[in-house]
TrEMBL record:
<keyword id="KW-0813">Transport</keyword>
<keyword id="KW-0812">Transmembrane</keyword>
<feature type="transmembrane region" description="Helical">
    <location>
        <begin position="12"/>
        <end position="36"/>
    </location>
</feature>
<keyword id="KW-1003">Cell membrane</keyword>
<dbReference type="Pfam" id="PF12911">
    <property type="entry name" value="OppC_N"/>
</dbReference>
<keyword id="KW-1133">Transmembrane helix</keyword>
<dbReference type="InterPro" id="IPR050366">
    <property type="entry name" value="BP-dependent_transpt_permease"/>
</dbReference>
<dbReference type="GO" id="GO:0005886">
    <property type="term" value="C:plasma membrane"/>
</dbReference>
<keyword id="KW-0472">Membrane</keyword>
<feature type="transmembrane region" description="Helical">
    <location>
        <begin position="115"/>
        <end position="135"/>
    </location>
</feature>
<feature type="domain" description="ABC transmembrane type-1">
    <location>
        <begin position="75"/>
        <end position="264"/>
    </location>
</feature>
<feature type="transmembrane region" description="Helical">
    <location>
        <begin position="238"/>
        <end position="263"/>
    </location>
</feature>
<feature type="transmembrane region" description="Helical">
    <location>
        <begin position="141"/>
        <end position="157"/>
    </location>
</feature>
<protein>
    <recommendedName>
        <fullName>ABC transmembrane type-1 domain-containing protein</fullName>
    </recommendedName>
</protein>
<dbReference type="InterPro" id="IPR035906">
    <property type="entry name" value="MetI-like_sf"/>
</dbReference>
<dbReference type="GO" id="GO:0055085">
    <property type="term" value="P:transmembrane transport"/>
</dbReference>
<dbReference type="InterPro" id="IPR000515">
    <property type="entry name" value="MetI-like"/>
</dbReference>
Amino acid sequence: MNRAGYNKFLKNRLAVAGLIIILSFLIVAIFAPYIAPCNIYALDLEKRLVPPGTGHIMGLDDLGRDIFSRIIYGARVSLKVGIITVFVSLTAGICIGSVAGYFGGRVDEVIMRIIDILLAFPGILLAVAVVSILGPSLNNVIIALCLVGWVTYARLVRGQILSAKENEYVMAAKAIGAPAYRILSLHIIPNILSPVLIQATLGIAGAIVGEASLSFLGLGTQAPTPSWGSMLNDGRRYILTATHLTAFPGLAIMLVVMGFNFLGDGLRDVIDPKENV
C-alpha cells in the first residue's frame, strides 16, 4: 500500500475502527491467561446465573463460571478457526483456480463443475454434513469449513487469471519460453492478489460465524472448552431469566465479525477503488 492509499485508509473511519476491533481481539486472545480474571473451569453452583455486577462484570453462567473469562478464551477459538480456515482455503483456492484459469480446456471444465456442485449446497449445511460424518471437534470444524471455503477463492482466482493471462507481459513471458509455474508465480498471481486478499478478510468473518453456528448446534468445540457459539447454546434455556448468558457471547461475535467486515470494505476502497465507481 502506497502513502496515498495509507492516507485514504486512515480517512475511512469505519475501516480504522474495524482494524482497532480486530487488533483488540487479537491482543485479548494472545494474552488471555493474563487478562482473564477467573479460572474458566472453576464452578460455583451456589452463585449460578448471578447477573453482571461487582466481581463478575459479565455475570456467571448456569454452572457458576465467569462469563467474561470464558469470552476472553473463546476469542482464541474463534480467531484460530477464522485465520486457519481462510489460510488453508485461500492457498487451495489460489492453486486450483490458477490451474483452471491458466490451462483452461478440460481441466478447467472438470474443476468448474466440481465447484458448481459444491456451490449448489448451502455452505453451512454442507459443513454440518461433514462434521456429522467426521465427528464433533474443533479440528473437524476447521476441515469442514475449509472444504466449503476454498471454492469461493478458486472461482475468484480463475476469473482474475482469465483476464490477466491476456496481458502483454504474460504473452511476452510465454514468447521467451518461460514455464507455466514461473509465469503464474512471478507474473500473474502477484498482480491479482488485491481482490483475493479483500475476499480473505471478509472470509475470516464468515468462518467465525460458521464456527459459532456449528458450536451452537453442538458440532464444534466440546465442553468444557469455551466457545462463543456453545455459550449461546448453553444460555438459550435462560434467555428470558438470565439474558446475560446469551447477550455477551452474541455481542462478541457481532463485534469481531463487524470488525473484519469494516476492514474488508476499507481495503476494497483503497486497493480496488474501481469497485465503488
